[in-house]
Amino acid sequence: MNRTTIGIIGGMGPHAGIYLADRITAHTNAAGDSGHVSLQLASLPALIPDRTAFLFDRGAPDPSGAILEIASELVKSGCLVLGMPCNTAHAEPILAKVASGLAQRHPEARLFHLIDETAAFCAEAAPGARRIGLLATLGTYRDGMYERALTAQGLQPIIPDEAVQQNLIHRALYDADFGIKRQSSPVTEEAIELLSLAVEHLREAGAEAVILGCTELPLAIKGRTFAGLPVVDSTTALARALIRAAAPEKLAPLN
Amino acid sequence: MNRTTIGIIGGMGPHAGIYLADRITAHTNAAGDSGHVSLQLASLPALIPDRTAFLFDRGAPDPSGAILEIASELVKSGCLVLGMPCNTAHAEPILAKVASGLAQRHPEARLFHLIDETAAFCAEAAPGARRIGLLATLGTYRDGMYERALTAQGLQPIIPDEAVQQNLIHRALYDADFGIKRQSSPVTEEAIELLSLAVEHLREAGAEAVILGCTELPLAIKGRTFAGLPVVDSTTALARALIRAAAPEKLAPLN
């Protein structure tokens, strides 16, 4: 298998890995089948302990070991360019162990950083926007990873109030009846309504664009704008970074 | 990795492998991420010579060797239940070599047969339908694989006239300007119009349901019916067969 195969560490959740593969294909300029980039997706959800549960209770099973094993298997299969489409797994207590383990075992491989790529992608997806709102899981929210990444890009993070995070965003994702992680085909109207209210809150707080900082959110929010704001999809950001690394000449213009 | 991991031999085309992974996820009953079945997708399109080109010119590169290598790598990674979402690759001159090579190298693995599974799925997707129409590539059409599989299920194949196959179906898939293999995001109106005329032709010939016998067709034809006929999607048929083999208790009811 060739040196530019993209490896996707999937399963967190299953939709996210598949959606990244889909975005890689959609953002590739290829005349026919054989012009597309090579990729491998490992979606082994049962092996990976819940990321959010671990971040809130360090006594809970640590997902980093399983993630590192899956990444290693992908590298051994020829994938030197890796992406992990799970924002929550980029929290420091998880990512630090994965990244250092991978650097030690496979210095030849490169794991792209979903959050940094998303912050960098704002300039392309929402040109001119300086104040960037965030929709994410509680684990991502509490970690502060997007504040750091946006600030590093010279952008101003607009983070929801705790009440909005808990009552609108968290519920839209995790509600036992209507949450996206419960029902995604199709996503429920309740979930979309809560997200729409959350984005209105971010806009009132000054946001000029909104990051979809959870890989399940594009199941609910399709298109380039939502509730009046341009959307910056983290999975699309990662897809474009991976294509740029594996086959830069094949990266399609953003339209 | 566990014994029930599903392996997808993808890349033929890239959308088809991703769509199979998507259908597996959509047809799985799972309360959360970790309840989903494990799967691996190998999408290495540049390695696999064009299937249709080989079927029409046996001097052209034979794709079966590359397909067998990819299947072997998946088995070595722990995938004992395999699917190949490409109808054309199920033509005898290609499949025979893949299947016998795999049986020799890895008797522990099982490659599910897309065409047979689709014929069997008609009873579930279009209950009561006896005369089943076919939309497929020229390679699949000429091979006669669906006639054989449908007849084996006691169903009557309704195959398009040569003119309809060439001027409507082949063009909808392969036209250099508007064909689905050229433009799929979104599919062009011209392609959908040609397919709609082809299905009307099949209905006039007595078809009570129509098989989407090319894995790119669901990009154009979504939903359970098209141009007045119930749709039997070959990728969905394969997805359900793979779930049934890997984790039967997780197969969602068809709705």
Quickly describe the structure.
Two copies of one chain form a homodimer. With 255 residues, chain A is an alpha/beta fold.
Written description of the protein model:
The structure is a homodimer of 255-residue chains. Chain A is an alpha/beta fold. The first copy, chain A, folds into two domains: 5-113 and 237-250, 3-Layer(aba) Sandwich (Rossmann fold); 114-235, Rossmann fold (3-Layer(aba) Sandwich), CATH 3.40.50. Chain A is 46% helix and 15% strand. The first copy, chain A, is built from eleven helices and nine strands. Chain A has helices spanning 14-26, 51-56, 64-76, 92-105, 114-125, 138-143, 145-152, 162-174, 189-204, 217-220, 234-246; strands spanning 5-10, 39-43, 79-83, 110-111, 131-136, 156-158, 209-213, 225-226, 229-233. Chain A has a five-stranded mixed sheet with strand order 6-5-7-9-8. In chain A, strands 2-1-3-4 form a four-stranded parallel sheet, sandwiched between helices. In chain A, helix 1 packs across helix 11 (234-246), helix 3 (64-76) runs parallel beside helix 4 (92-105) and helix 5 (114-125) packs across helix 7. The longest helix of chain A is centred in the C-terminal third of the chain and has 16 residues, at 189-204. Chain A is globular, with a radius of gyration of 17 Å. The two termini of chain A are 31 Å apart. Chains A and B meet through helix 1 and strand 2 of A and helix 1 and strand 2 of B. Strand 2 (39-43) of chain A pairs antiparallel with strand 2 of chain B, so a sheet runs across the interface.
